[in-house]
Amino acid sequence: MPSKGVRLLSVFEVFMVLIGFGTLLIGLLALIMDITNKK
Questions:
Q1: What sections of 1-39 are H helices per DSSP?
Q2: Rounded CA gap, 33 and 6, in Å?
Q3: Of 6 and 27, which is predicted with more confidence?
Q4: What is residue 39's three-state secondary structure?
Q5: Per UniProt, which keywords does this protein have (predicted)?
Q6: More confidently predicted of 35 and 9
């Protein structure tokens, strides 16, 4: 049973990392769009 709990925790951690990475990607994309629009 403990392995199942660890697996669930790791999936949750991966999900949180994906959300954080996605937010970072959106932020970078917005920054690039802003720079290209200023030219």
A1: 2-38
A2: 40
A3: 27
A4: coil
A5: Membrane, Transmembrane, Transmembrane helix
A6: 35
